[in-house]
Amino acid sequence: MKRLNAVLIGMAIIACLLPGFAVAQDKSLTMATTSSTDNTGLLDELIPHFIKKTGIELKWTATGTGKALKMGENCDVDILMVHAPPAEKKFVDGGFGTDRREIMYNDFVIIGPGADPAGIKGKAIAEALQTIKSKQGVFVSRGDNSGTNKKELSLWKAAGLPVPEKESWYVQTGQGMLATINIANERNGYTMTDRGTYIKYEDNLKGNPPLEILVEKDAVLLNQYSVIAIDKNHCPKAKYDTAKQFIEWITGAEAQQLIKDFKLLGKPLFTPNAKM
After folding, report:
1. pTM of the model
2. What's the rounded Cα separation, in Å, for the pair 202 and 139?
3. I need a labelling partner for 23 at 20 to 30 A (CA). Which of 4, 180, 220, 268 fits?
4. Other CB atoms closer than 10 Å to residue 3's CB: what's the count?
């Protein structure tokens, strides 16, 4: 009996060391992602293809990029999909993440009422923000440390202006993008969003939204998205090998084509740009 037990234990140890066993025990992945990839429906389109291809179940939490990075730092997830390059690079340099790969982009836009009370339509972003300030047009900010919020704050500074957080015309919602857009509409004000989320908002309203794109196509409005695996040196329980499979898939030909083909109202929400 002792010999039989020893044999069984030995077989169990060998099984644990086999690659197939490791994969069988590692068929799930957790991800924190920016709200735009969730709100637009992109992940609902992509993830079933990933599951079919790999058998790996992926569960995601949609939140602002700032909170997503914090979840990674706290070892709450295995991988991130975010859109704030300076904060991402700081995250990786700090030893929290690894294998950062660019996957797609869109751009930020300023939207507002068609009547455009501050008169910013067609202006460059810096001039548009200066005009909003001088005319005290209502500007609705997410105010939530998301990637969009981080970018917005940097644009005020780039325009030579302090962040107007104490001004009465500057409203901080602390909410997601679609909720912030709705508040901007209620206040007859302006806000900044990524184009993909705006197209989703436009689609929700059957192509006839009350808020229109007024400022766009400025080079500084590029909105880059990336994936980052959580570093096992910082989070020993992070499923790095499984995260790596997702990174290879999302930057590969199949997923990049799916991103390219993802459209609403006939408009692309994101442009794939992974280096394969």
Report:
1. 0.89
2. 20
3. 4
4. 7
